[in-house]
Amino acid sequence: MKHKEEPTDPPAQRRSLQFVGVNGGGYESSSEDSTTAENFSDNESTENEAPEPPEEKVRGVPETSQLRPLETAGPKASQEPPHVAPAEGASGSGKKKAKEVEEEEEEEEIRMDLSPDLISACIALEKYLENNDALTERELKVAYTTVLQEWLRLACRRDAHPELVRRHLITFRAVSARVLNYVVNIADGNGNTALHYSVSHANFPVVRQLLDSGVCCVDKQNRAGYSPIMLIALATLRSQEDNDTVLQLLRLGDLNAKASQAGQTALMLAVSHGRLDVVRALLACGADVNVQDADGSTALMCACEHGHKDIAGLLLAQPACDATLADHDGSTALTVALDAGQNEIASMLYSRMNSQCSFAPMSEDRNPSSSSAEE
Question: Locations of Polar residues compositional bias (predicted)?
Answer without folding.
Answer: 28-43
